């Protein structure tokens, strides 16, 4: 029996590692035709090769800097040439840098907003025409618990992710009449490269702050994203769902 998602076309940005890689693998299990994006040429190829080996699916691999409007247009042109439409879009590409106010460099501030906020806007803005050609199109953007609850040392990063949450809510209202659903997820502390710099004490502190007393796994977030892309969430739009193990309650 085929999956309800069989043949649906999905673009996942930032799919070379972490949550993006987990999303790509989850969607592969559901039969999506995948377009996998990485910032640099070939950076998403490892994920694509794994998916081909494990699931027999050959994703289209694209690359480019999402903060560059021309790069985003080129990516979406390749999607059009291959598939002529998009049924699902996961806006996951992002960067992270922590720092206290008064100590953040100008370049870091500009890069955080350029990739996380402006890049997300370029991606959805450019993809709307492809989504309008899709079937039951759905968009999921990656916000963060830092954008919904905030934290010292995460002010700038949190602001960029708060922008993503606001974008998702407004875009849901604007695109809803066209049948395009838009939601966001706000992960908490997830065991990705972002947390690799933590020492044992820092890791224990974050686990203690989480009600479920563990770090999240990328697959925990991927499962929620897959739900939001699916027909099971057909009446859900404009939501920012926290996937944080009870960090914020």
TrEMBL record:
Positions of the Ketoreductase domain: 8-188
SMART domains associated with the record: PKS_KR
Domain of life, source organism: Bacteria
InterPro entries linked to this entry: KR_dom, NAD(P)-bd_dom_sf, Sc_DH/Rdtase_CS, SDR_fam
Protein family (similarity comment): Belongs to the short-chain dehydrogenases/reductases (SDR) family.
Protein name from the UniProt record: Glucose 1-dehydrogenase
Source species taxonomy: Bacteria, Bacillati, Actinomycetota, Actinomycetes, Micromonosporales
């Amino acid at each position: 029996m085929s999956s309800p998602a069989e043949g649906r076309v999905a673009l996942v940005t930032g799919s070379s590692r972490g949550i993006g890689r987990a999303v790509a693998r989850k969607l592969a299990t559901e039969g999506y035709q995948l377009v996998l994006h990485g910032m640099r040429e070939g950076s998403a190829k490892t994920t694509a090769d794994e998916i081909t080996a494990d699931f027999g699916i050959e994703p289209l691999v694209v690359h480019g800097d999402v903060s560059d409007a021309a790069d985003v247009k080129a990516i979406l042109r390749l999607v059009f040439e291959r598939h002529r439409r998009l049924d699902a879009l996961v806006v996951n590409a992002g960067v992270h840098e922590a720092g206290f106010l008064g100590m953040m460099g100008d370049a870091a501030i500009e890069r955080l907003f350029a990739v996380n906020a402006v890049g997300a806007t370029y991606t959805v803005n450019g993809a709307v025409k492809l989504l309008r050609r899709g079937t039951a199109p759905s968009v999921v953007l990656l916000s963060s618990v830092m954008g919904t609850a905030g934290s010292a040392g995460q002010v700038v990063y949190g602001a960029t992710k708060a922008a993503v949450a606001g974008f998702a809510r407004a875009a849901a209202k604007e695109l809803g009449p066209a049948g395009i659903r838009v939601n966001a997820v706000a992960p908490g502390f997830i065991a990705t490269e972002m947390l690799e710099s933590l020492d044992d004490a820092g890791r224990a502190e974050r686990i203690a702050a989480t009600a479920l007393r563990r770090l999240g796994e990328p697959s925990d977030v991927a499962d929620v994203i897959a739900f939001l892309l699916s027909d099971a969430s057909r009446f859900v739009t404009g939501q920012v769902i926290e996937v944080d193990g009870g960090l914020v309650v």
